[in-house]
Design brief:
Elements lengths: L3 H5 L9 H10 E6 L4 E3 L7 E7 L2 E7 L2 E8 L3 E3 L1 H5 L8 E4 L3 E7 H10 L1 H30 L10
Antiparallel strand pairs: 1-8, 2-7, 3-6, 3-8, 4-5, 4-7
Helix pairs in contact: 4-5
Length: about 160
């Protein structure tokens, strides 16, 4: 089980009490990945959120024969929350380890409970989500422009 000190080092949990951290530690699970390993793949059930404790993961979506990098997450970063917050049943992108990773996973039911019972965490997560949604919308608009302009490698329609 993850230590309270490890969770305490994640800025998202900076305002949590020892009791809240203990509850979180009991709810989550640790995962270790080697470079090149997938963490989750596009189409997998969106049933967890993740905190990168150490390492780096790249999240990318397959668009035709091109890989569109959506984000790269490093240490002490929450990711994977958007599909759950948006009610999407599956991850729309894949995460692959760029370096050796130590990841803490929290099941979506515990995630929702955390949001309901730890307001300081909920505030940070919602602010982060708003920024990420804006970034995804911007990327989507850019991709649409590329497709409409006949950008090499992209095509409109089947």
């Amino acid at each position: 089980m993850i230590t309270l000190d490890a969770l305490r080092q994640v800025p998202l949990f900076a305002e949590c009490s020892d009791e809240q951290l203990q509850w979180l530690a009991e709810q989550g699970a640790e995962v270790w990945l080697q470079p090149g390993e997938f963490h989750r793949k596009e189409g997998d059930p969106a049933d967890h959120v993740f905190v990168m404790l150490e390492g780096e993961v790249r999240v990318a979506e397959q668009v035709g024969n091109q890989e569109l990098v959506l984000a790269t997450y490093g240490p002490k970063t929450l990711y994977g929350e958007l599909p759950i917050l948006m009610g999407t049943p599956y991850y729309w992108a894949s995460g692959r380890a760029l370096r050796s990773c130590h990841i803490w996973e929290l099941h979506k039911d515990a995630f929702w409970q955390m949001l309901a019972t730890i307001p300081a965490v909920a505030t940070v997560i919602l602010q982060t989500m708003a920024k990420r949604v804006q970034e995804l919308q911007s990327m989507s608009q850019q991709r649409k422009s590329w497709i409409e302009s006949g950008y090499p490698g992209c095509r409109a329609g089947p």
